[in-house]
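anyone seen this seq b4? input:
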Amino acid sequence: MLYDRFQEEAINYINEGYSVIVSAPTGSGKTAIAEHVILSSLQNKVGVIYTAPLKALSNQKFRDFQNQFKDNIGILTGDVSLNAEAPVLIMTTEIFRNKILDEPESLKKYSWIIFDEIHYIDNPERGTVWEESLLFMPEHLNILGLSATIPNIKEFGAWIESIHKKTVKIVVEEKRPVPLHFFLQAQNQVIDKIDDLKRLRYTKPNKISALIDYICRKDGFPCIYFVFGRKRAEDLAWEMYTYNFLNSGEQAQIMSLYESLCRRYHLKHERTASRLAPLIKRGIAYHHAGMLPTLKEVIERLFTSRLLKLIFTTETFALGINMPSRSVIFDELKKFYGRYLRILKVRDFYQMAGRAGRRALDKEGFVFCRVNPRRVKYEDVKQVIYGKPEEVKSQLNNSYATILNLYEKYKDSLFDIYPKSLHYFQSRKQEQKEALRLMEMKLRLLKESGFIENGTLTSKGMFGKSVYGYELILSEFYAQNILEQLDESGLGVIVAATVFEPRKNQHLTHLSKNSRKIKDICENIYGQIKRKEIKYRIYPLTKPCAFHLSSSMEAWLRRTNFQDILKFTDTDEGEVVRYFRMSVQILREMNDVKISSHILREKINECIRVINRDVVDAEKQLREES
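predicted toks r here
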């Protein structure tokens, strides 16, 4: 195989036995380096772990690598476990971190760990998991880190070298194999010089039809249109219904493929799949997290067939999923980061823009930004397109479960670990003092709450160290014997309420008597936890339970079909599936706790069995494809 300069450089270092971190633009071919590690490891009969930030990305990598490496590939993501003893095991970063802390012996047979999208260490919600994975990683593992462009890659590599006392080679590629050509739509004109923005008079609104007509003339399809809202994605797709991007032969082809995929994934009678059909026939679709996972998979397959010409999608479509197009459109250049609407980060912009320009197919990729000069300043547009990508910064905030695991191993000397963190490596003295204070306060709360007594983890602590992210509230249920007293339905209601995060102003439907009783218990327990966290100035506060899916969960556990349980909630169907799958994962973590009684385990197993069926069963989809 003929490699690009940066691929060859990385592979040479790997062959010499070095750990390597690669920083290169989206779509430049970083996966080829991972494939080399896998192939050479299989030849040398050593194991490889491949971690990805999203379950959807883990599933896609499983499919891709299984096509190449057959039975040598396995997957373990919390709600999927297939061929888990395979020499190449794909997993989410959370699973890898948990294995490091809970069962490090299981990692001895692996020689390499591949971190895909390693810049995710900068993610406010989940970056801590990546940092803990790198910090506590067994010394025998070599690292291959694959990253989007980050300017402080050398600092990042130096931190890893400092904690693991091994050389880490840095490989940087700044050029894209397919260059990008940027256009702006402003005042309903398409311009390719950013300075022209200053000259436009602010009178005409942008029309999507004018932009699509322009792309038609430039032969710019297939095209990915990025929006920052699910409803907006659907509305824009239907706004395009008057267009038909396919000839009669292509229409017949795409409908035949769509119908066969719908049959394969048991979507023939799903309302959303039927509703999408008229758009599909015209070469148009939408794709977002609120859709059924199987339907999203169907849309992705249609897109890779090149019959789908225009897809309206949210930003998760940009993360790692290999779906290149000729053009990319940004609906706007602002999005919500947490609670605040702000200009896109340069790194996020290029993660999405990088989907434009298909290697070996296109000479250049086209990127179109729709700009309303009243909403976005000229300087902001210039910064997003021509600015320097943001540095990767630590988001460390150790969970209670991590602190329990570290305490079990190191006792009070666990604080000696903090100076090895990326957070310490990058932070000023005041930030370091605050991070250490937070760890100390969390440990004090755990001791006060009965997780630790006389320097040893109690049964409550042993339970808590295994349920990451939900440890305080679930451990109270365990310690107060509430879990033992619940039936399978009650267990399902509790775990769904624990993981669910309602949207702003989301409606709480009528609760059954049983769910109301559980809700009262939860609110009482949560009130006690919140008071302690406020006392110790711990932030962010533990998430409260939310019972918006209780009626749907109860109906699902009565074996009601999926479409019928949706009438009990205003949550999107894809989100219902996601939260039910998260519930299964939490139940499995609870079941793995060695101190759980036989009776509790039996109930947990039965609850898992009934929840994890039909559209919720993530394994089923992958099993059917294998």
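The CA atoms of residues 15 and 40 lie 9 Å apart. The longest strand covers residues 110-116. kinda curious what u guys think
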